[in-house]
Amino acid sequence: MFIPPNQKKLMEAIKERLQSFDGDVLSLYKLFGEFEGELEFSAFEQDVLAAVDRYLTEHGLERDTMMRIAQLFLLKEPVNARKAEAVAAGLIAGATENAVFGDRDVTQKEIGEYFDVTGGTLAKYRDMVADFIAERVSQVVSEQFGTAEEIGTDPQPTERELWEMFTRVSRHEGASADELDRMLQEEQNQPFEPATDEERAQQFCYDAYDSGSDAERLQLARQAAELAPDLPDVNLLLAEQEEDILQKETYFLKAVNTGLRRYESDFDDSWLYVPNRPALRALFAFGAWKITQGDTERALQELAHLLERNSQDHQGTGWLLASSLLTEGKLAEAGQLLDVLDSVAENARLYLSQLRESLEAGASYDAAVDALLALDADEGVKERIRSITDPGMFPRRISLVEEEAQFTYWLLYWPLMKLKAAE
C-alpha cells in the first residue's frame, strides 16, 4: 500500500480536530479535516474529486463535508480503478448509506445511472467507502467514550490544546457558527496568548505538567499561584510536593472545592466539557492520595463522588474504587464493580478478583499472597508482590497496557497491607 509523504501530518491533524467531538455522531463528518490546498492528488484522483463535486453541485448538496471525506478516502485507501466515475459513485453511495447527507432518499440505482456505472462496480466502492467512514467514526467514539489506556493524576496529553481551543471560542461569545469557524481557522496557526491572569496561571500549570523536572514543576506552580491562587491545578501542583501532611490536605481540599464551584453539571458526559476536568482531576488525585494515607473510607467517598460525575470513567476511577472496596472489606460491591470494569487492564481484573476470593474465604495474608503468586498471569506483578514495597503516590501518568504490572501492584498493595496489619 502506498502511503503519501504527508500522511503522518494529515492523520495527526485529523486526530487533533477529532478530540473536540461532542457526542453527536453526525457532527463527526464535519471533522474530517480541511486539507484542500495542502495536499497533492494524482490526475486520476483529481478526476474522482471533480466528479464528486459535480454531483454535489447539481443535486444541491452540502459540499465541504463530502469533499473532505472524499479527499481522506483517496489518501488512505488503495484504489485500483479504471474509471474515476466508479470511485465517485461509490463515495456518494457510501456516504449516503452513512447518513452524511441526512435522511436524503436516493436509490443506489439512481446514483449508478448518474455516473454510468454497473450495480456490481457501484457496490464494490460503496462498501469500501461505507466501511471507511464507519471505521473512522468508531475510532473516534472509542477514543472519546472508552476508558483511557493512559491515566494518572496529570492531565491527558490532549487537554491543553482542547483548553486553548475552548478559551479561544469563549472570547467570541455571540458569534455565529460560521464566524467562529472562520476565526478559528485564522487563529489555529498562531500561538495561544493568554488574555487574563487566570489564563496565564492555567498556562503555567500546563507547562508544569509537561515538565520532566520536579523543581521546575514547583517553580511554575508558584508562578501560577501568584496570579490565581484559587485555581484547582495550582493547588494540585502545590499539594504533590508538599511534605507537611496537614498543608498537603489543605491544598487538595482547596483544589476540590474550587473545582466543584466552577463545575458545570449540564452535560451527559461532563468530561467532554474541558473546563470541568480540573475538578474531576482534583477528586481523582485526592481520592488516590487518601488511599496511600490509609484513609480508604474517605477515599471511597471521593471516588464514588467522582464516578457519579464522570460516569463514562475516562480516568480509570473504577479501578481505584475496586481496590478501596477490597481494603474496606466490601467484597460483594468490589466483585460487582470488577465484573463491569473496562477490559483494557485484564491482568488487574484477574489479580484483584483472586484477592477478593481469598478475602471472602477468610484467608491469611500469606495464603492470599500464595494464591496471587499461583496465578497464570503477568510475572511482573508477582515480582513486585514478592518484594512488597510501598508503591507510593499514584503515578502522574501510567499506561494500563505497557505498565500494567506497576498499575496492578499499586491496586493490590493497599488491601494486602490492611490484611497483614489485621493479623
UniProtKB/TrEMBL annotation:
It comes from Planococcus lenghuensis. This is Tetratricopeptide repeat protein. It comes from the Bacteria.
